[in-house]
Amino acid sequence: MAKLKIHVLSSGRFMSAEKSNFTYQMDQGVKIVSPILMYFIEGAGSKILVDTGVSDPEWAAKYHHPIKRRPEEEPLTALRGLGVEPQDLDLIINTHLHWDHCFNNHLFSRARILVQEAELRYAIAPLACQALFYESAAVGLTPSWLKSLERIQPVRGEYKVEEGISLVPLPGHTLGCQGVLVQLASGPCLLAGDNCPLLENWEGNQLQKHIPPGIHVNLTDCYDSFARMEQITDRILPGHDLKALAMKQVS
Amino acid sequence: MSTYVIHPITLCRAQAEKSLMTYMAHQGEKIWRPYIFFLVEGQGGRFLVDTAIEAAQYQSYLPFFQKVEFQPLLSFDQALARRGLTPADIELVIQTHLHFDHCYNTARCGRAKVVVQARELAFARDPHPVQASMYRRELFEDLDLQVVDGPQEILPGVCVQPSPGHTPGGQSVLVDTAAGRAAICGFCCIQENFSPPADLTERLAPFASQPVLAPGIHVDPIAGFESVAALKQMSELILPLHEPAVMEVERVP
Asked: Does A59 reach chain B within 8 Å, measured CB to CB?
């Protein structure tokens, strides 16, 4: 089996993210710098990108929160840095369909897109307080992922992508969140999406073994997903943590 | 038609994070959160909604709470005495839910039947770890419980209505008054849950289209959101369980 390697890429950074949106009932009012991460899996049979990142800064500031984006954080530039042209990409896995995780699906014209069926259903008509996260019609927007609807392959539950790479449903943050389990030479590593936006969510503290994400649709699902994660690995890569970005690559 | 007068009574208040009431809004803001119970009197009878908690009771509940700044106001007995009552005069208590700070003094009303939703009782007896510290069996297990399942008329002009989300079996109490139908909320919230301030729509884009805010403490924020929205439709007058302005209200109407 080929040796798999995970490259950690940033598509931009929230410069003043409310920390309690990541850590439920903790650090309210604390603001942090938070990258919007993408993960490229190298060494697989297919060229695979997990999440396609955030919009451009202008769109983000207009509809969501201001971001900063260095030239190398432009998603196509980030991938070219690994020698991957947009049309080379075979597969996109969206951990979920919040705008900052799937905004650039359409830039990869050949890629099949794997999304959990539950997520796809919910993303069309979410609860009002989450409508903007999905850029849904309720807030007068059209979700960016709809541009490449015909390439989406809905997945129901656990799914083997190829040898050494599989999808694991991790509901809680959203109804159809999924993680991507990658078998590295050093052991299994789980790209946990926003059920663990920060490493801190997984590492926990004195009061809690794991800290649920502040944004969630179901709190008890978050705990059940943590329990599932414990069964499969102790190694997590999060959705929005500078510490993960500093790792650059994991093998 | 039977109508009632509602007296909100506050036993203490504490410095608290506002977003624990308003999910994903007002993060980092502090409020004086009152601990309120409601004495309701009318043609159909007299009853309490919840029994609240005194400052000293709260601070002794968990070591952590000794660090919280509390302001004691009244004991439960003093509060009833002000209305010419003793705990033994109370024959009916409706529990919005069984979190300790809402039922701490219920056992003191030894003659009372206590109305609670079946789902709340089941969860209180076997809570998910996320809320385990909020429930204590000795506060509710020996009560004369009258378990209901779903919406139900308790007295003429008084109905309970399930409001899940904050807890699985929270119930709101709808009370007919001379000024219309009042709702005592079945979940921890403040006024802003029902009418988010306009500046929120500027500062917090996700709430631009949102008429209400889910309770910040919850098992299920979607159910919580729907409960707030439903209650807003159902009543003319809302009494949020932890709204500071309710402290100033002597009676409704």
From this structure: no
Nearest CA in chain A to B229: A128
Task: Enter the pTM of the model.
Answer: 0.90
Residue corresponding to tokens 């204590």: B136
* Chain B residues touching A130 at Cβ < 8 A: 206
Tell whether the model's pLDDT for residue B207 goes beyond 50.
no
pLDDT at B166 over 50: yes
* ipTM for the complex shown: 0.84
- Cα separation, B240 vs B243, in Å, equals 5
Q: Give me the half-sphere count of Cα atoms (radius 13 Å) on the Cβ side of residue A232.
A: 23
For residue A127, name the pLDDT band (cuts at 50, 70, 90): confident
What is the C-alpha to C-alpha distance for residues B13 and B15, in angstroms, rounded to an integer? 7
Is residue B215 within 8 A of residue B23, CB to CB? The reply is: yes
Banded pLDDT at A126 (limits 50, 70, 90): confident
Q: Which residue has the tokens 């709260």?
A: B58
Residue B4 pairs with which residues in a beta bridge?
B42
Q: What percent of chain A is predicted at pLDDT more than 90?
A: 92
Region B7-16 average pLDDT: 98
Report yes or no: A160 and A169 within 8 Å, Cβ to Cβ: no
Mutation target vs B (from A22, A26, A28, A134; most B CBs, 10 A cutoff): A28
Side-chain half-sphere CA neighbours of B113 within 13 A = 7
* Cα gap A23→A210, rounded to integer Å: 10
Longest dimension (CA), chain A: 47
Within 13 Å of residue A151, how many CA atoms lie on the same side as its CB?
Answer: 19
Residues A148, B159: Cα–Cα separation, whole Å:
50
R_g of chain B computed on alpha carbons: 17
Host H or E run for residue A5:
strand A5-18
Tell me the HSE value of A44 on the side-chain side, using a 13 A CA sphere. Answer: 25
Q: Distance between CA atoms of A63 and B244, rounded to whole angstroms? A: 33
In Å, how far are A45, B160, B183, B214, B227 from B234, measured between CA atoms?
A: 58, 12, 8, 17, 10
Going by the DSSP 8-state scheme, the letter that residue B182 receives in this structure is E
Residue A137, chain B, CB below 8 Å: the answer is no
Q: Which helix (H) or strand (E) holds B164?
A: none
Between chains, do B208 and A132 touch, taking CB under 8 Å as contact? yes
Looking at residue A19, what DSSP letter applies? G
- Tell me whether residue B136 is exposed, middle or buried, using C-beta atoms within 10 angstroms of its C-beta: 0 to 12, 13 to 18, 19 or more: middle
Instruction: Find, among A203, A112, A18, the residue nearest to B24 by Cα.
Output: A18
> What would you measure as the largest C-alpha separation in chain B, in angstroms?
51
A45 token code pair: 């049979």
The radius of gyration computed from the CA coordinates of chain A, to the nearest angstrom, equals 16
